[in-house]
C-alpha cells in the first residue's frame, strides 16, 4: 500500500487524535470506513494504532463500499496485511 501524501496526513491526524483521546483506554474499539475503496486508509490506521498499543485494547474496523469489486480488493489487502477477520 502506497498512500498519497494527503492520505498520509489523514492517517497521521487520525492516529494523533486517537492517541490523545484514548491513550489510557484498555478497551477495544472498532472504526468504520465508509467508501473504503482499496481499504488503504482503514488498514493503515488499524496497523498503526495496533503497533503503538501499549495497553490491552486493540482497534478493529469495518470497510463499507457500494462497489463489490472495491470490497474484493479491500479484503485482499486486509488479508495481505494481517488485519482481516
Write the layout of secondary structure elements.
Blueprint: H1 5-22, E1 29-34, H2 40-52, E2 59-64, H3 68-80
Helix pairs in contact: 1-2
Characterization of this structure:
With about 80 residues, this protein is α+β, with helices and mostly antiparallel strands. Helix content is about 50%, strand content about 15%. The protein is built from three helices and two strands. It has a two-stranded parallel sheet with strand order 1-2.
Write a concise keyword list for the protein shown above:
alpha+beta, two-stranded parallel ribbon, 3 helices
Largest sheet: 2 strands, parallel
Number of helices: 3
Percent of residues in helical segments? 40-55%
Query: Can you give the mean pLDDT?
Result: 85
What spatial form do the alpha-carbon principal axes imply? globular
Strand content bin: 5-15%
Q: How would you spell out the order of helices and strands?
A: HEHEH
Name the strands of the widest sheet in spatial order: 1-2
The end-to-end distance, rounded to whole angstroms, is: 19 Å
| Unreliable stretches | none
Beta-strand segment tally:
2
Tell me the structural class: alpha+beta
Q: From the alpha-carbon coordinates, what is the Rg to the nearest angstrom?
A: 13 Å
Amino acid at each position: 500500500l502506497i498512500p498519497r501524501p494527503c492520505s498520509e496526513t489523514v492517517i497521521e491526524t487520525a492516529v494523533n487524535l486517537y492517541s490523545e483521546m484514548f491513550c489510557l483506554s484498555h478497551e477495544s474499539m472498532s472504526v468504520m470506513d465508509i467508501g473504503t475503496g482499496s481499504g488503504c486508509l482503514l488498514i493503515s490506521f488499524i496497523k498503526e494504532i495496533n503497533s503503538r498499543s501499549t495497553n490491552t485494547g486493540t482497534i478493529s474496523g469495518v470497510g463499507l463500499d457500494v462497489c463489490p469489486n472495491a470490497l474484493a480488493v479491500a479484503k485482499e489487502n486486509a488479508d495481505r496485511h494481517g488485519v482481516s477477520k
